[in-house]
Design brief:
globular; 8 strands; alpha+beta; Aminopeptidase; 4 helices; 175 residues
């Protein structure tokens, strides 16, 4: 992925939103977001356990964990993977994962700004598609993604491979 980019967009409250690559110092705020209801059953890694994983993720080519900020506060996060393909005449594709907006800041344009940033990044990189998956029970999220132009496509399959083996204890606050 290109070097860290700061996008400034307006939220519906009139404040400035910024979107940038996450740094290790953002982990506590990101884990707090993941600890909200509806995400990971409020179970999250500790900051100490997340650090080595974050550093390993940073070594993946074309994979980024991003944060959306307003002022000094992290109010949203998502991951974006751009992957090369031999099919589709070599055009890359992109996947969004782990989208989360702070519960107290929803419906303020944060999710829309993050998805627009991901779409613009994928377009700039020549991706032929951008995909994401959403829990089947999250009807509100599905309507949100549809309003942004995402279409339900194909059928998704998964196989559970057991409980994830956490590298260290987890807790409800990410600390």
């Amino acid at each position: 992925m290109p070097a860290a980019r700061q996008d400034s967009v307006r939220d519906t409250t009139g404040g400035d939103l910024g979107i940038r690559r996450a740094t290790e110092s953002d982990l506590s705020a990101i884990l707090r977001l993941y600890g909200q209801s509806g995400m990971n059953d409020a179970r999250v890694l500790t900051v100490e356990a997340a650090g080595p994983i974050f550093r390993r993720m940073a070594m993946y080519p074309d994979y980024g964990l991003f944060v959306c900020t307003t002022g000094d506060s992290v109010v949203g996060t998502f991951a974006l993977l751009i992957m090369d393909n031999l099919a589709h005449l070599g055009a890359p594709s992109a996947v969004i994962e782990d989208v989360c907006v702070d519960e107290g800041n929803r419906r303020k344009g944060i999710g829309r700004a993050m998805m627009r940033f991901a779409m613009d990044t994928a377009t700039a990189r020549g991706c032929y598609k951008l995909t994401l998956s959403s829990n089947i029970a999250r009807a509100g999220a599905h309507a949100f993604y549809a309003a942004l132009g995402f279409e339900q496509h194909g059928v998704s399959f998964r196989v559970s491979l057991g409980e994830p083996a956490a590298p260290a204890e987890t807790n409800a606050r990410g600390r």
